[in-house]
Amino acid sequence: MRRYKINNIMKGKMMMKYYAYGSCTNLNSFNETLNTGGFDGQYKIISVGRSEGYKLAFTRKMNSSSGALDIIESAGDYVLGVVYEIPDAAISTINKREGYPTAYKHLKINVSLGEEKLEVLTYVVVDKHREEVCPSKEYYNRVLEGMKNRFPKTYINQYFISHYNEKFGGTESLLGESNLYHDADHDAQFKKQSLGVIEENELFYRLLR
């Protein structure tokens, strides 16, 4: 099994691997953040990464008193996330979005891309609420739209929608039959990149389906 480090050099720039599991899976939202720091479009989607022994949880209480996602240790569960390659300098822009270092802190983890392991940087909540905090509908929809374009429906239904309904008494509908990347047609840029990811990681794509 091959392992890859978090940093490399591309076209004279130091690049790093950033792992997004929540609202930054939404490509429009993520690129808007990069644009605020002058990094508009300066990213590459590497693949979908799977981190074992974690699960999603709304442990972050924002200033608005609504919740935001975190990943917490949980044996037997897993989290899917988008692995982005971004310039090292862009991490300061993402730090501002995530409220680093008081709201979220950095965590380096290894994620699986099929048979390969990749070291990535992600964010986890610093002050975790024991009782999960209900997110705003706007936040929920932003995350859902991002996930729908990247992850299989079985994962979204179990670890996001059903979890939300059970924790907060929600009545959100589960997703119907669909496949990974099925809903990406509206986003030509992501569609082009995701097709390349599927070709490069055919085994992993088959496993996710």
Characteristic key phrases:
3-stranded mixed sheet, disordered C terminus, Hypothetical upf0131 protein ytfp, 209 residues, 4-stranded antiparallel sheet, 7 strands, alpha+beta
Could you explain how this protein is built, in words?
This protein has helices spanning 27-36, 91-98, 137-148, 153-168, 188-200, 202-208; strands at 3-4, 7-10, 13-20, 44-61, 67-87, 104-113, 116-125. It is an alpha+beta fold and 209 residues long. The strands form two sheets. A four-stranded antiparallel β-sheet has the order 2-3-5-4.
Strand residues, percent: 25-35%
How would you classify the helix and strand content by structural class?
A: alpha+beta
Query: Low-confidence runs (pLDDT<50, min 5 residues)?
Result: 181-199, 203-209
- Tell me the number of helical segments per DSSP (H or I, 4 or more residues long): 6
* Average predicted local confidence, pLDDT: 87
Per CATH, the architecture is: Roll
Spatial sequence of strands, sheet with the most strands: 2-3-5-4
Overall shape = globular
Q: How would you concisely characterize the structure shown here?
A:
The protein is an alpha+beta fold. It has a single domain, classed as Gamma-glutamyl cyclotransferase-like (Hypothetical upf0131 protein ytfp, Roll).
Lay out the secondary structure.
Layout: E1 3-4, E2 7-10, E3 13-20, H1 27-36, E4 44-61, E5 67-87, H2 91-98, E6 104-113, E7 116-125, H3 137-148, H4 153-168, H5 188-200, H6 202-208
Parallel strand pairs: 1-7
Antiparallel strand pairs: 2-3, 3-5, 4-5, 6-7
